[in-house]
Design brief:
The protein is of the alpha+beta class. It has helices at about 10-20, 25-45, 70-95, 100-105, 135-150, 165-175, and strands at about 1-5, 45-55, 60-65, 120-125, 155-160, 175-185, 190-195. α1 runs antiparallel to α2 (about 25-45) and α2 runs antiparallel to α3. The longest helix is centred in the middle third of the chain and has 23 residues, at about 70-95. It binds coenzyme A. Coenzyme A (COA) binds near residues 20, 134 and 135.
Amino acid sequence: MIRTFEMCDVDEVVAVHISSFPGFFLSFLGSRFLSLFYSGICAAPEGICFVYLNEASRPAGFVAGSSNPSGFYSRLLKRCWFKFALASIGPILNKPSIIKRVARAMLLPSRNPVGEHVAGLFSIGVCPELQGAGAGKKLVQAFLNEAQNRGCKRVFLSTDRDNNEVVNQFYLDCGFIVERQYVTPEERRMNEFWITLPAFLG
Ligand SMILES: CC(C)(COP(=O)(O)OP(=O)(O)OC[C@H]1O[C@@H](n2cnc3c(N)ncnc32)[C@H](O)[C@@H]1OP(=O)(O)O)[C@@H](O)C(=O)NCCC(=O)NCCS
């Protein structure tokens, strides 16, 4: 039911992202932008990504991140900044007020925590019809196993602190702990969760 996320899965993963993150900034940037984002993670040697297959063996959930998260987004943008810029034009014309946020994302260094032997879980989504049936936990488990196989000792992720109880509870249930809280330039209050992988517990 879980397998590695391949390039041929990108369109379906983008569709799952859009349905599971309605109203979020990346969804607003649209399928072209998201395709570049997920293709970039999938193609990167340090990418860790899996899909959850539904009964028809089609991707209905995904998890994506990196075993070298520090500077990951800058490297991704450097590789294909022109395509990202082109993909942003339509959304910016639709809503000019997002230009500052797009520029910040493209020009400023990412806020990913630094450190050796650390993996970052950047995105996880399960299509709304399948949520609450255990797919998310399986995806997180696959991600943690692979991070450990690659020699990572700890994994982090960030999620909204406010109006997001189910997701925060989901990560607590998966064994993550909130180690830091911060506020983004868009004034979103965030929880930064961490987990130490079982092979490295004292
Ligand atoms: C967060 C998400 C990936 C979890 O995936 P999922 O398949 O729904 O999660 P699971 O079915 O594996 O649930 C595991 C646990 O999470 C909690 N949970 C998940 N969905 C829940 C819901 N709708 N209501 C209550 N609890 C829920 C439960 O504690 C559950 O524990 P249990 O196994 O003891 O019942 C999924 O709900 C999702 O895609 N949400 C929208 C996108 C999103 O917000 N992603 C995270 C951004 S950081």
